[in-house]
Amino acid sequence: MSFDPQIKPGDVVNNAYIRKIFKCSLYGGMNRSLITNTLVIITHVNKSVYSDRWIGNTFHYTGMGLKGDQRLDYSQNKTLAESNENRVEIHLFEVYEEKEYTYVGRMILTGKPYSERQLDEEDTDRQVWVFPLTVAEGKVLVVDEEKYKSALVKQQWEVKKLSLEELKKRAGKSHKVPGYRMVRVKQYDRDPNIVELAKRYANGICQLCKSKAPFMDKSKEYFLETHHIIWLSKGGEDSIENTVALCPNCHRKMHIVDDIKDIENLTAFAKNMVSADNRFAPYWTDERIKAVKEKAKEAQKTAPKLTNAEKEHMLKKMMSADAGIKKVKYVLGGYRC
Q: Residues 6 or more apart from 240 whose CB is under 8 A from it?
């Protein structure tokens, strides 16, 4: 009969819980309990000396030993290598945040341990032993995307501390074939009408940096990306007042920096844009638009020629005066381009 840890895959527990339930110490990555006949193994997703990795449904776990060559017949490496014979149960926990242990499940050694070259904690090249493990129940834990990304960001901050020589040495030990695993993504259903309206309001101009879209897509339309000023994941509304169109560079900036001043500026801009359009909408009937177009054609024959810079200046000036979207379009239509 297998040991019951009284938790299910995905549950997050602390150090004290593991020590209490499994009756083991928790000082390193491999923790043996003679009382419960278990081996608790820990992998740090946020940072680690070891190159533990998932490749599909198989978890490749690096053995015990921080410095120098590892031995397969040493301590818990031997326990894990012989786990199919000695009947010691293997239980895996992943650490995404300090002092938080996410339970993956009971693991089984499903392949022969193999050796590879890795760097130890002193960045010295050495031989390690890697153990191919799979979840006993066959179902791999699917991790929340945000949780996984957060751990990867922490990894990136750790390597920023390294010198150029240290980075070169570690990069030279790359596995070439990347590890991968399944993550759970929450996909919000965005209203396509709001997406299109935000882009039409922008008219090819990024609403943060005020620059022209960097390129045109295959449909020959200026490429901008819609962004929710207050993220949907943070409770923001899927409304035109909370949606703007940004160039790819500014869109990434808002997701990485998310500066409060940018948020305030975009919020004010979006509300003014909607307010201006609503105010002038009743005035611009189809008949009046048709009449203005005819007048614009006549005006173009004698109107002064404007440079692109002059037109942009006039557009910004009129927008700052809270002019309606359609009004801006048709007034500019009265000049020869």
A: 194, 197, 198, 201, 270, 274
Q: If you compute the radius of gyration of the chain from its CA atoms, what whole number of angstroms results?
A: 30
Q: Where are the domains of the chain?
A: 12-184, 189-279, 281-337
Domain formed by 12-184, architecture: Roll (2.30)
Q: Is 156 left (phi over 0), alpha (psi -120 to 50) or beta?
A: alpha
What is the DSSP track for 58-120? EEEEE-S-SSS---TTSHHHHHHHTHHHH-PEEEEEEEEETTEEEEEEEEEE-S--EEEEEE-
The amino acid present at 52, given as its one-letter code, is D
In terms of CATH architecture, what is 189-279? Orthogonal Bundle (1.10)
Local confidence band at 137 (pLDDT 50, 70, 90 cut-offs):
confident
DSSP string covering 226-259: EEESS-GGGT---SGGGEEEE-HHHHHHHHHT--
pTM of the model: 0.65
pLDDT tens digits, 167-183: 888 777 777 777 777 77
Closest to 183 in 3D by CA, of 136, 139, 149, 137: 149
